[in-house]
Amino acid sequence: MDFVKEGESDIKALFNRIKKGDFSGSTGIAIKNSIYQFSTTLIGKIGSLVLTIILARLLMPELFGLYSLALSTILIFVAFSDLGIGETLIRFVSRELGKKNLPKAKAYWEYLIRIKFLVMLVVSLILVFAAGPISEIYNKPISLALIAGILYIFFGGIVVSLQALLQAHNIFKPILFREIVFQITRVIIIPLVVLYSIKNIETGPLVSIIIGILSLSFAISAILLYYSSKKTALIKETKTKTLSLKNKLEIKRFVLLNSTIIFSGIFFGYIDIVMLGYFLSSEYIGYFQGAFSFINSAISLITFSAALLPIFSRLKKGKMDLFFKKTIRVVSIVSVASFLFILLASKPLILAIFGSEYEPSVNILRILSLLLLSIPVTTIYSTYFISSGKPGIVSKSLIISTIMNITLNYIFISYMLAYGPMYAVYGSAIATIISRYFYLFLLIVWKKRV
């Protein structure tokens, strides 16, 4: 009861601040940024969900499954091209901006961007040569789509870098505008192209065209963010410092730890799709992806990690802990309400949104709804540790949980496949639930020790 009362009190205080327009102090900055971030996330997830629904209905489960498998595979390569540089940039540049040390902040920016583009180039070349063999392993026609993913890596990487720069400055409004344009562009263009091409183009080329248009939307977004970033104090700054060997080692250590988090996190998020792609035909991937995309959209609406990261980075230990506890209370209340709603309304939601062809997704959605209780809280814990300069804790926990997820997925899918392909999909969902809760358990244990 005390927990609920405290949570309700925090929510009332939050709305009172918004109503009065009081955005003073660290809490006020966090609220303002969270409003922008929430709006960005809301538009992004609504746009993603709308696009997913349209594609699911146009492509039908089999072709939609191929698209999901191709995009999931590309996103794994995106993780290798990122190396956690965006989060590293936010931490180090935000820290120096907080100290009013613009030359050093710019030095960090330039150093990290050079690393970013070099890594993107290497990963893109690897994807070109790996596209064919990966397609053969899946035994599915997605090689052209994977090659189209090179553009996705390049333009998506630019967008992530520029957004990180703006977030380090606590500037979130241009990111919201960028998201609006991005979603409108792809929600309008992709369905039109699919409608025109679906009867005239084979499966493989059609999926590659969809990936190409996604990349084009990122290119437009990159242009918008570039003009917004030109107004930041860091870009206007003409002076720069030479980073010491100690600074570079600190960055490399943080990037190494963060890259481990990114790699593990992306495998954590997409290993189920990849393994289902290996064991099952593509329509079952479509069933799983329909349910998972809905849950993922709901989860993103109750997490504000991008807005919290620069704030956590500037707070001292005592204030950070207090801010952490209040955030957990609010997020937990919303998580419970969202879980109960989706659990009870799974069937009408699936039938109304995706259509009767996706009725097998209903039970998958019910299983995955448990993620609404764990992932939002897990996100707050991981953001806290990263902002505290302890990404190693997140890295270790994530690696252990990812290994568990891969192992359980293999065991459950291969064992339950004997009872039918849908049981194999249920097995993958259960493996994901177990490993996600174990990840949260590890973070809670580490937080108590720290």
Order of helices and strands: HHHHHHHHHHHHHHHHH
Number of domains: 1
Rg from alpha-carbon coordinates:
22 Å
Largest sheet: none
* Shape annotation: globular
* Approximate strand percentage: under 5%
What this model shows, in words?
With 450 residues, the protein is mainly α. It has one domain. The protein is 87% helix and 0% strand. The chain contains 17 helices and no strands. Helix 1 packs across helix 12 and helix 16 runs antiparallel to helix 17. The longest helix has 58 residues. The chain is globular and about 60 Å long. The two termini are 27 Å apart. The N terminus is likely disordered.
Keywords:
17 helices; 450 residues; mainly alpha; disordered N terminus
Topology:
Elements: H1 2-20, H2 25-82, H3 85-98, H4 102-138, H5 143-168, H6 173-197, H7 203-229, H8 233-236, H9 245-279, H10 282-300, H11 305-314, H12 317-344, H13 346-353, H14 361-368, H15 371-387, H16 391-416, H17 421-449
